[in-house]
Amino acid sequence: MTTFDSIASHLERQAIELPSWAFGNSGTRFRVFTTPGTPRDPFEKIADAAQVNKHTGLAPSVALHIPWDKVDDYGVLRAHAEEHGVALGTINSNTFQDEEYKFGSLAATDAKARQRAIDHHFDCIDIMNATGSRDLKIWLADGTNYSGQDDMRRRQDNLAESLATIYAALGDDQRLVLEYKFFEPAFYHMDVPDWGTAYAQVAALGDKAMVCLDTGHHAPGTNIEFIVMQLLRLGKLGSFDFNSRNYADDDLIVGAADPFQLFRIMVEVVRGGGYDEGTYVAFMLDQCHNIEEKIPGQIRSVLNVQEMSARALMIDHDALDAAQRANDVLGANGIMMDAFYTDVRPALAAWRESCGLPADPMAAYAASGYQQQIVADRVGGTQAGWGA
Ligand code: RM4
Ligand code: MN
User: Distances from the Cα of 173 to the Cαs of 13, 65, 274, 308, in angstroms?
Assistant: First the structure.
């Protein structure tokens, strides 16, 4: 098997974008619990995200969600991020929390609702120009609850037209990434339920449009790494929203529910060139920390991705290729499992230290006093959250 030393240099370029909303309060439809020290505004969210990067060296940018992260001056927010050693990343639009979107947004039958959603995306592009963001990420809650409720075909055509209008407003270096989800909040049909629909829609737009794969957005039992392989093969895997799930869109810590699945995904990423220098694949987290502490939750998450990436990189690709071509079923599988079962944690800890990072980022954060500081400082005001 490949040695850790020979893959260590590949770990240096790993970058995982953090979602600003992971630092705010979140919950289920039953209850949103508060946590002492939770940020009150986007500036405090970014300060918290910077802690994750400080202790891991893995998280150099933060994704924003509009309007949750609306500020008067995005230049000021950008400077604030830079002062904290991070950049502002993907801009996520939000067309799922207004009365006007009750029956859909970009795919809606009502032209007024569609126009409102298109205008919101124009606003998001203005923000991208101010923040220096490359990606506009679109996730739609659009869909219906009952058969016959609306014309699915017409809605697909509406969506294509709306997306084309937004796409035309992108700058040369900007991209549109379209995310899919098989159900929720709509329970009969979603307008972008699967990778095939997302692919068909973005392929019609052009090179600057790609698919976002959220690992929690598939039916149970779906072979997600197959989708990763296919989208990479087609040159359309724009980004990942990493998280893990046991049941539905649980938004739990990536690699928590099924570390082996994360490993298999990273194997396909490496195989498909998604981990190469200058990759066009953006790696992001899309998670909520409903009951656990948020900053350590994010630290744990990026470490889980790092760990499974290291294991995936350790596969002996020549040996695997030879075993596959020889139809050596168990031999090929054994090569995968050898890499998966290799405990890279001690080697990673030593490597981190050699890079000037704490060997144990979780312990380093706990000992830093930051958590106690924000609990003491952040008194009054309204904690950020998305009001579920
Ligand atoms: C959606 C989707 C989006 C995320 C929101 C918060 O389910 O996953 O990516 O922005 O949730
Ligand atoms: Mn997502």
Answer: 21, 20, 19, 31
CB atoms within 10 A of CB 60: 18
Q: Judge if the beta carbon of residue 139 lies within 6 A of ligand 1.
A: yes
State which ligand 1 atom lies nearest to the alpha carbon of 216.
8
Instruction: Name the residue with tokens 């098989």.
Output: 182
The phi, psi pair for 361, rounded to 5°, reads: -60, -35
Say how many CA atoms lie within 13 Å of 229 toward its Cβ: 8
**Separation of CA 23 from chain center:** 14
Decide whether any atom of ligand 1 lies within 6 Å of the 179 Cβ. Answer: yes
Report the C-alpha gap between 99 and 104 in whole angstroms.
10
**Structure tokens, 328:** 């050596």
Spatial contact of 59 and 361, defined as CB atoms under 8 Å apart: no
Going from the C-alpha of 5 to that of each of 11, 68, 315, 361, the distances in angstroms are: 10, 43, 13, 21
Q: 185: cis peptide before it, omega within 30°?
A: yes
CA angle (173 as vertex; 172, 175 as ends), nearest 5: 100
Helix spans in the chain (H):
4-11, 42-56, 74-83, 111-131, 152-167, 195-205, 224-233, 259-271, 294-313, 317-325, 329-340, 345-354, 361-368, 370-377
- Residue 67, preceding peptide bond in cis (omega within 30° of 0): yes
Query: Residue 307: CB within 6 Å of ligand 1?
Result: no
Q: Taking Cα atoms as reference points, which of 274, 287, 184 lies closest to residue 227?
A: 274
**What's the pLDDT tens digit per position in 317-375?**
999 999 999 999 999 999 999 999 999 999 999 999 999 999 999 999 999 999 999 99
Q: pLDDT tens digit string along 132-180?
A: 999 999 999 999 999 999 999 999 999 999 999 999 999 999 999 999 9
